[in-house]
Amino acid sequence: MFKGFSRRQLAKLAAWSALGASTASAKAGPTRSGEPKASVVSGFPKGFLWGTATSAYQVEGAVRADGRGPSIWDTFAHTPGKIVDRSNADRASDHYHRYKEDVQLMKAMGAKAYRFSIAWPRVFPDGAGEPNPKGLDFYHRLVDECLANGIEPFATLYHWDLPQVLQDRFGGWESRDTAKAFGEYAGYVAERLSDRVTNFFTINECGRFVEAGYGGGPDAPGLNLAQNRVNQVRHHVALAHGLAVQAIRARGRTGTKVGPAENIVVCVPAIETPANARAAEIATREMNAGYLTVILEGKYTDAFLAYAGANAPTYTTDDLKIISSPVDYVGINVYTPHYYVTAADDAHGFAVLPMPASFPHTSSPWHKIGPEALYWAPRHVAKLWNPKAIYITENGTSAADEPVAGGNVYDLDRIVLLRSYLTQLQRATSEGVPVRGYFLWSLLDNFEWTDGLDKRYGLYRVDFETQRRTPKLSVSFYREVIARNALA
Ligand code: BGP
What we know:
The chain is of the alpha/beta class. 39% of the residues lie in helices and 13% in strands.
């Protein structure tokens, strides 16, 4: 991986590091959840929304169909040396043509919701200006198909496929013009889809694509900017989120809901004492200062600004107002614990423990296995910011997924991982943490960014030659969880 860092490690290096933090004074919102306590039940709250997730570039294929313009990921995936297995997403899982079959796969599992993303370059091939109605038509068809089958659509507006033209014209997220164009695009989509789509997510994982795309990491557009410029990029992405929230409020139907979908930096108390739990909460606020914290509090923390120093982004108080436009919920992608934390008697209030080399991980080396991340991440969000609702917008794992004779895939490693993570999520909901739904990543094997087609995350195995979908054993597991609304 680039410079010896995996993209996940780069993503968590955010704008500042734990060790550089100065005094952190956390603003604690009203407590929604109680102190940790043993729970004997295995059920989830009534009406809990079980779903699966995908993203446009990773599953759709059909990159030249119906007037779609190129995105930075098309350019990047076709640049030699960027994708591990030399694949690209020109076909991916062919969801663009097979969406009806894929909706049936969800229905067969009993899934109640589908989180997909809309490809900006399908809707505005030129990034802004003239829309391409044929591009949006695909999402009309997809949404109608979901609704006809009792599946609630949740649309993400940006899952990294920036129109290439905006990168060429403005330097992409380096420019406020891209943030403005995103607001326009969000308003246009809300105007046309919010009669049937009630729930939108603005931007998927700012914490990854900013660092990994602009800060020397291995993702598109593949830039290695100085830290002040990376911080400015992140500020523009936060601004784009806020502009999109405002545009959706202004142009969507009354009752349309919106929030971010962020890979929150997850800080876990190494040992569950009240002091360590509090330290992990303080750490969470500071480690997410450049995005979630500024969105939910309307200010950059003192520690963030002190650490950034001359590299701090330039912004106005008006920007902060836009960025912190009220949201209806907070979406968090939770795969892994980023930091194990203990209380410290110093200015920071927390200390980060070094990760042992032997810490277990999945078939994706960045993905350390720490099920309690799915308890602490939503719990910290609830305690720090008291949102109306929280969604787990992604959780899941890659696995080898080799079919045995007869073609079955017994992905026991995925089942064991999901069960242990869901046990921790159940612990959170049973304590009153307001998690309303869970989207398993992913419905299908797909194009996993720089890993290409090599890493399989799907509940359904995809044969990328024939596009045949085969349920893995985890489909039966997830079906059981959904049917019981409880651990299985
Ligand atoms: C999240 C992304 C998804 C998906 C998933 C798997 O960060 O939002 O798009 O890619 O992680 O991770 P990876 O492909 O890095 O193994």
